[in-house]
Amino acid sequence: MFDPFQIWRETLTLIEGEINSLASRKMETAEFAQAANQFNKVSLGMQHVLERSLASVLRRLELPSRTEVDALACAVQRIEDKLDQLTPAPVKPSHALRPTRTRRPPPNVAKAATKPVKRTRKPVTPPAAQEE
Q1: What is the model's pTM?
Q2: CA 131 from centroid of its chain's CA atoms
Q3: CA distances from 79 to 72, 75, 85 (A)
């Protein structure tokens, strides 16, 4: 049975293998090592210049740098840790006394509900007196 995808997979595998072998042969040469070394030097130099210029801009804008913010965060964390040691541990609500869970109300509520409440009636005023 003819499978065009199988031919494509085999071709792709062959091309990848050839490229890998060519690259590994080239990486073993002294010229490649020198070029990689030079690239690393230029990259590190550019990174150093960028960091210095960014620090200068941050100073002019009176903004903290990342290292200053990290130092401040560490100082705040130390202060919070010391405060946690000085303050007593909070009482958890699960340890507080709770009323028992029953269908009957507590005794003091049951007595209050059974007491009769005296109610007084308001005097009825005639409709003519309301209009004045």
Answers
A1: 0.41
A2: 68
A3: 11, 6, 10
Rounded-to-integer distance, Cα 91 and Cα 95, Å? 7
Plot region of 8 (φ>0 → left; ψ -120 to 50 → alpha; else → beta): alpha
Instruction: Determine the Cα–Cα distance for residues 53 and 5; give it in Å rounded to an integer.
Output: 53
Q: pLDDT tens for residues 24-51?
A: 998 889 998 999 999 999 999 999 999 9
Q: Which pLDDT belongs to residue 88? A: 81
Helix (H) or strand (E) holding 13: helix 4-27
C-alpha–C-alpha distance, residues 104 and 106, integer Å: 7
Dist. CA 58–CA 69, nearest whole Å: 12
DSSP code of 104?
Answer: S
The pLDDT value given to residue 106: 65
Could you state, in order of their start, the residue ranges of all structural domains in the chain?
A: 1-87
Nearest to 78 by CA among 70, 66, 67: 70
On whether the CB atoms of residues 110 and 104 are closer than 8 A, the answer is yes
User: What pLDDT does residue 43 have?
Assistant: 96
